[in-house]
From TrEMBL:
SUPFAM superfamilies: HD-domain/PDEase-like. Residues 20-166 form the HD/PDEase domain. It comes from Streptomyces mordarskii. This is HDIG domain-containing protein. InterPro entries: HD/PDEase_dom (IPR003607), HD_domain (IPR006674).
């Protein structure tokens, strides 16, 4: 994927989020900034990760809400309106263990059949790391603090609260895997 994809993704996300959801836009920019850090791990897929990172929450845009489940709504918009790359669409649809939230919402079968999880574990893990180590304001954080913040914002008994608590062991394990891979990268200088 080229820098053209990342540039297009940035423009699309900005159009949908910047004015209506500025905090979500700040988060998306922070997630995309984290993606840049993973370029050495991803090689040719680094541009795809940057694009998915800035677009991962596009489904929150008020004009795109159809099911109320932002990964699915965003992925459908990217696929149906923009004809976006299938790998990008599937990354957005399944970011940060979305299948577990889809299950809470009665949409798991729909998501699995329509937009199955991408069979590229490092790329999927990379997007989880970017999202789950970025605050709503776009700052870096730990996965533990991020999960606590999400539960606090939505409430423990909410759909999102239940989902994130179920997903937290997988989130923490994923973040550890990515951080181990980053630590194993050769340092220059």
């Amino acid at each position: 994927m080229t820098s053209q994809l990342a540039e297009w993704a940035w423009k699309a996300a900005k159009t949908e989020l910047a004015s209506t959801l500025p905090r979500r836009w700040a988060h998306s920019l922070g997630v995309a900034a984290r993606a840049v850090e993973l370029a050495p791990l991803l090689g040719d897929s680094a541009g795809l990760l940057r694009a998915a990172a800035v677009l991962h929450d596009i489904g929150y845009s008020p004009g795109l809400v159809a099911t109320g489940f932002h990964p699915l709504d965003g992925a459908r918009f990217l696929r149906d309106v923009h004809g976006a790359d299938e790998r990008l669409v599937r990354l957005v649809a399944n970011h940060s263990f979305a299948l577990l939230e889809a299950e809470e919402r009665g949409l798991r079968e729909t998501l699995e059949e329509e937009l199955p999880l991408l069979d590229e574990p490092l790329l999927v893990d990379a997007l989880v790391w970017c999202d789950m180590t970025t605050t709503p304001d776009g700052e870096q954080t730990t996965a533990e603090r991020r999960v606590t913040e999400i539960v606090g914002r939505y409430g423990a008994g909410s759909v999102v609260g239940r989902f994130i608590r179920r997903a937290s062991p997988e989130i923490f394990a994923t973040v550890e895997r990515v951080e181990a891979a980053l630590a194993a990268q050769p340092r220059w200088g």
